[in-house]
Amino acid sequence: MTAIRQHEALAQAYDGITAVVTPLDDADLQRPTRCRGWLVADLLFHVLCDAQRALVTLASPAPGPADVDDVSYWRAFTPGGDDEASVKHAWWARRSAAAFDRPSGVVRIWSDTAPAAARAAAAADPDGHVTTQGHVLRVPDFLATLTTEAVIHHLDLVLDLPGAPLPTEAPTRVAVATVDGLLPDDAVRPTGWDDRDYLLKATGRVPLTDRDRLELGEAAGWFPLLG
């Protein structure tokens, strides 16, 4: 995927989340998600923080070369790698989201911030580098990390929202490419998995079945690939 299409994929990923949360009332924003302990409003606040980080990062150019790419970036976030930090962040996000008078307050800020982040991505130099979370990445790779996270959390958001729209094709392809890159070289994706199955199982949202383990062979021990 070219650098130009990377920013388009991010815009579509963020638009997809907006399409999920905008119609929801305050009761629906308090429905559960796939992220343990987080309601829809809590998870949306977490993704809002990502969009805010995008604005800061895209305004923080760095000299190259990059020390990680759009795949190796995720190896620092191995599932269970720092459970204490994850619990602290989860609790912080819940308390921060709860500080709004109403859950819909998070939606209003998201609806302003996400398009701004997408515009900043479109304006960024595709040949440039940025710094975030202690790493230096090429701009297109940074945008791919944001897209992957947005797609996975989009799937988390709709757990208890029947009829909500799912991520569109372009951002889903970015997330799938990320997971492909984290698989061992000799692993083959089970034939019965569609993209949604793949992402949910690769991130541990849905457990592997006995048949999955048989098809994956030794590669099953790598799962989940991404937390």
TrEMBL record:
<keyword id="KW-0413">Isomerase</keyword>
<dbReference type="GO" id="GO:0046872">
    <property type="term" value="F:metal ion binding"/>
</dbReference>
<feature type="domain" description="Mycothiol-dependent maleylpyruvate isomerase metal-binding">
    <location>
        <begin position="11"/>
        <end position="157"/>
    </location>
</feature>
<dbReference type="GO" id="GO:0016853">
    <property type="term" value="F:isomerase activity"/>
</dbReference>
<dbReference type="Pfam" id="PF11716">
    <property type="entry name" value="MDMPI_N"/>
</dbReference>
<dbReference type="InterPro" id="IPR034660">
    <property type="entry name" value="DinB/YfiT-like"/>
</dbReference>
<dbReference type="InterPro" id="IPR024344">
    <property type="entry name" value="MDMPI_metal-binding"/>
</dbReference>
<protein>
    <submittedName>
        <fullName>Maleylpyruvate isomerase family protein</fullName>
    </submittedName>
</protein>
